[in-house]
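Usage

Read records sequentially. Each one opens with the input sequence:
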Amino acid sequence: MRPIREGLAIPAAACPTDRGRRDPAAAQRLVELLAGVAAGDRDAFTQFYRSTNHRVFGLALRLLRRRALAEEVTQEIYLYIWKAAGNYDTELASPISWLMMLTHRRAVDRIRTETSTAARELAYGQRHLGRDYDVVAEAAGQRSDERAVVACLETLTDTQRETLALAYYGCHTYAEVADRLDVPLGTVKTRVRAGLKRLQNCLTGSVTDA
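and closes with the structure output:
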């Protein structure tokens, strides 16, 4: 896991067993560590992180289904803990419950952001496809009807549209698209080739199914 921002180094991930998960003494120890973190004790932060990071990362990964995003959310959670441990209230939740609530909320926010970004990129692509890819642009110009481009986009599969939107209108490299969609690089290249071929066939009036 990469070092966290602002000079606060996140230790290497540790995954202790869940023995004592409901142990009152263990819970009290986490409360004490949070108090130390609130007072700026870096050692307390390190111990708190090593005692809990497997739970935070596990929940983030289950929700996001992408390791890179789960790692980012985990770092964001512990950066928040370092800054706002004083906000923890023992009367409202146990330390673990508080962490799980924060993780769930941050992961859901990330899902919404990713979904919204993909939708905006796809919408942009649908409006500008005729101007951003030479072969398709030429065909669209010959047809003199940009509505045809949008109509032809509907002939693509959902995965082809999403991949083309990210590659050509989100300004992402194929490798970045592969990481963003959590698929192999070869799959991205195949989707792009098939999608562009199908668009070209549609715009030029070809009946060949790519």
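Summary fields computed downstream for this record:
- The chain has two domains: 24-112, 133-203.
- The longest helix spans residues 95-132.
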